[in-house]
Amino acid sequence: MKFEKLLIASVVSTLLLGCGSNDDKAASTASKKDEQNVSVTSDTSDKNSNADLISNTNTLLAEWTGPFQGVPAFDKVKLEDLKPALEIAMKENLAQIETVANNPESPTFENTIVEMEKAGESLNRIFTFWGIWSNNRSSPEFRAIQAEMAPKLSAFVSQINQNEKLFKRVQAVYQSDEVKSLRPDQQRLVLLTYNGFARNGATLDGEAKQRYADINQRLAELHTKFANNVLADEENYVLYLNQEQIGGLPDSIVKAAAAAAKERGKEGQFAITNTRSSMDPFLTYSTERELRKKVWETYYNRGDNGDEYDNNALIAEILKLRHERVNLLGYKNYASWRLEDRMAKKPENAIKLMEQVWPAAIARVKQEVSDMQAIATQEGMEDNIKPWDYRFYAEKVRKAKYSLDSDEVKQYLQLDKLREAMFYVAGRLFNFKFTPVKEGSVPVFHEDVKVWEVTDLTSGEHVGLWYLDPFARQGKRSGAWATSYRSHTTFQGKKNVLASNNSNFIKGEPGEPVLISWDDAETFFHEFGHALHALSSRVAYPTLNDGVRDYTEFQSQLLERWLSTDEVINQYLTHYQTGKPMPAELVAKIKNASTFNEGFKTTEYLASALIDMKLHTMDPEGIDPDKFERDTLTAMNMPSEIVMRHRTPHFSHIFSGEGYSAGYYGYMWAEVLTSDAAEAFSEAPGGFYDKDVAAKLVEHLFSVRNAVDPAEAYRAFRGRDAKVEALMRDRGFPVTK
To answer: Which residues constitute the domain of residue 178?
Structure first.
């Protein structure tokens, strides 16, 4: 039973954490009658005469069939089956757990830990479809179900975490001499299983235990409501422009905006949607300053408009409940509890890393603003640089300093070609081959989704499937993410991997190539790194596929480095019209400008990460989130020309679930590993395609997933711990000793 993964899936409503879908009013507390109906009973008798019939006809409960060891039946599942399927699967899962808990035999690894790993397969399959409805195909109907079921799922998880008989059996195995005779990965599984209970209320008694469960249930409601409010603001605020208002926008962006308007019934106009993928290029190129301001304000005020979708009151309650909950367990604050089982171990360690980088980041911003202000003043702007000007004038500085035009670069970044480049890298490093499956042989949930079979290049052995959902559309959450529909395991026979990547690129006109920015291309590679991490898995048990939050971004960040290798540039970065490879002089400009605008990127990220940590290391009683954000940023000397990457009212990573709460620092923690590991490749005889280093990478850092402590895994790869100096060199910041 994968407790942490299930807890995240049920409460966050998305495998990759943080950004769920939308519902406006349905996230209210369940009625007493509803609570009684779903207080999921462990009674194995059939209290519903129709239960067998429902389970036989419910599309979500059916085992996956078809090729490749069975695949999700995206073409057959029905949303109306979701609620009854969840209720049946929860009862089934609890019955399985009760069987383990009441086993009359003495607790052993096999009859307790392994049996728990077997439990909950029906529920895990359902969460695959839940994730698609939440993230890729959200609708008002799903949001109503999501809001109703999130607290019920939380109550279900609490029933398992607080099952005293079960915990005593787990504890007995954890403390037994048998553990010493187990394989290292089995020992780690015992540790993770025990911690999954101990850190989630199993050690509490009486009123404290009940209060812990009540808090979790309320948090599930609040997390769902927060995510739904953000999506509501993304859907409700779309800026429609006419021909006279698109000055400065490159042709590719104009076409994408026209297509987005047409999709929304506004043919002849141009739609700037309230998502980063639409906002960012508009602020970079639009010559209409007032419109830039409007787009900027709309985007950064998501969840902060004082209306029914405002998130400030939710944030205050979430923080208060999290603080109370960890106090019940004896922790002084939420961050101390959250980081205990992560690489950083303590909030102080994460804060120390961020504060090492912060002064260099804001100093670089000062230099960047000075360069931009000089151009703005020269062009006649009498005002100072404002946040909605930053991207626009940064692009002008880029051209002036490096003769590098971002739109020129985009002409060589075709989405299809980049996908082929990723396959090339996967072949060279991981020995994977990607072959499109026959159309119609594997069900998909939208016509945009394509599927590839992944095989071992040498043996031809089947590894898994890779699904790609690349384009933005209504009902799809913004951003980019990766998820797995099925993870690799061997403890019940070898199971192959079903991995998925999801993006929000703007689809162009039919027949036209989709051109993306260099940053978006890096993100494409980044998310593919998550997929490769899943596809590389060689672990035996499901729980060992679950990631450690401040480590799991490392593998994906590292894969970004292969985008700028000569092999990829020369073969796959070709002009969309001429087919000619990117010229050497343009490549040189890109590499020379690799640390350009690093002050902006680092500062906007670090501001969010530091605010996250400060929110979760304080007593939140009486907090005013807006005031706290303003006052804290002022105390940090936050440059006025920049805003947090994720302002608190729409910080879905930390408030629509707990996947990244007190953990947003993890991107930088992982990037220290990334920079250090990249230097291992750059120092190797074969460079970034060195066979020996690649083999060590796969063996120690990809295939083991969470079967090995991440710090030990990295030392096995590198021979030592990672050094922060590599990160500073990467960002072009001064290296201090």
So the answer is: 3-231
